[in-house]
Model the fold of this input.
Amino acid sequence: MKSTILITLAILMLLPLALFAQKESDRITGVWFNGEKTSKIEIFETKDGSFAGKIIWLKEPNDASGKPKVDNKNPEVKLQKRPLMDMVILSGLTSEGKTKYANGKIYDPKSGKTYSAKAELTNNNTLALRGFIGVSLVGRTDTWTRTTK
Done:
């Protein structure tokens, strides 16, 4: 009887930890401001276990004519009319430990260019995202900060 009670107590004490446990690699998930704070990107885990990010908020969602902004810088003409809102701009990031992610791609709607990407959580609320061509030495790092929807 005593052992049953002790086992039950142990399970009850550990249950909250199991319920709130998050894989270390999942720390990147959530909503992030880009470096300029002109957009919010929601990073989520995909079915294949990699991470992707889509635009969920724009500081200026409409163009000068009052219409929702579109991907007008895209080199593919057929994609130039797709809305920026809900566009996936980050894809394929894979975890390389507790704080590092690699093998991704990031699309820059301002230029219409796609770059290789890697990221590192410098703390739980700061993400250093590097876009580059070829080797990561030739590129630019943007610091994203965690926010809410």
